[in-house]
């Protein structure tokens, strides 16, 4: 998706923002456009406070001059705008391609409303083509990996778990100090079941299935913007 389209989706989402709002600021290349647009509006007089979902977004928002708070200082938010790696027509999402899924999910859960901005190609009939990120604690990685494998088997799902690595080959470490296992599943027939059972495995911190969190989506396509939900 061209930067122009990402920017158009971000600008449409920014129209939802009014003075006094407490905003969750997402992570990724599409969310970065939203942060940039909000930065411009703040410099033009808009009064908002943002809670970033990653250190990268915090740095960008600081550069943009957006007043920031922690989620502890401001535990209830009006609106979060964030990207996604996949979404279906029930507004169920796969997120975490950028590694920020844990903070993204905590921030989205603390928000009255979450709106997704994404490339139209991320809208899918069935989730799972994009590898599902599963954030795990480094301690007992192999045992956790085996437990996830057993769970997938019990759900009749086949898939390879790959430890995400940084450019230097070392395990990728999240802002929370955890690792990520990317589950290459191909398709997820029952996302709700997988989402709730994954959370029962000790060692799993969080996963990238966002269910019941997004209330709307703004999708940028070559033909223009498509809006889902509200
Ligand atoms: C980060 C995310 C991102 O929102 C997701 O990866 C989409 O990123 P982009 O807008 O760059 O395609 O979940 O953890």
TrEMBL record:
Q: Which InterPro entries match?
A: NagB/RpiA_transferase-like, Ribose-5P_isomerase, Ribose5P_isomerase_typA_subgr, Ribose5P_isomerase_type_A
* Keywords from the named record: Isomerase
Which family is annotated?
Belongs to the ribose 5-phosphate isomerase family.
Reaction(s) this enzyme catalyzes, per UniProt: aldehydo-D-ribose 5-phosphate = D-ribulose 5-phosphate
**Name of the top EC class for this enzyme:** isomerase
Tell me which PANTHER family the record gives: RIBOSE-5-PHOSPHATE ISOMERASE 3, CHLOROPLASTIC-RELATED (PTHR43748:SF3)
Picking any one GO biological process from the record gives: pentose-phosphate shunt, non-oxidative branch
Task: Name the pathway.
Answer: Carbohydrate degradation; pentose phosphate pathway; D-ribose 5-phosphate from D-ribulose 5-phosphate (non-oxidative stage): step 1/1
Q: What is this protein called?
A: Ribose-5-phosphate isomerase A
Q: Which HAMAP family match?
A: Rib_5P_isom_A (MF_00170)
Q: Briefly, what is this protein's role?
A: Catalyzes the reversible conversion of ribose-5-phosphate to ribulose 5-phosphate.
Q: Which GO terms describe its molecular function?
A: ribose-5-phosphate isomerase activity
Cross-referenced Pfam families: Rib_5-P_isom_A (PF06026)
């Amino acid at each position: 998706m061209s930067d122009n389209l990402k920017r158009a989706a971000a600008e449409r989402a920014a129209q939802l923002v009014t003075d006094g709002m407490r905003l969750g600021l997402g992570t990724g290349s599409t969310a970065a456009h939203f942060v940039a647009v909000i930065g411009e509006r703040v410099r033009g007089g808009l009064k908002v406070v943002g809670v970033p979902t990653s250190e990268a977004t915090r740095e960008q928002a600081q550069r943009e001059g957006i007043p920031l708070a922690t989620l502890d200082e401001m535990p209830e938010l009006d609106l979060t705008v964030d990207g996604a790696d996949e979404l279906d027509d029930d507004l169920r999402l796969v997120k975490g391609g950028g590694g920020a899924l844990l903070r993204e999910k905590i921030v989205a859960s603390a928000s009255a409303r979450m709106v997704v901005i994404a490339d139209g190609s991320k809208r899918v009939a069935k989730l799972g083509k994009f590898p599902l990120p599963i954030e795990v604690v480094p301690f007992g990685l192999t045992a956790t990996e085996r437990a996830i494998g057993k769970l997938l088997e019990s759900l009749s799902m086949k898939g390879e778990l790959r430890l995400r690595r940084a450019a230097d080959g070392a395990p990728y470490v999240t802002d929370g100090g955890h690792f990520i296992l990317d589950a290459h599943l191909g398709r997820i027939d029952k996302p709700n079941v997988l989402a709730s059972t994954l959370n029962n495995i000790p060692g799993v911190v969080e996963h990238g299935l966002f269910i019941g969190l997004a209330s709307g989506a703004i999708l940028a396509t070559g033909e223009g913007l498509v809006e889902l939900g509200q």
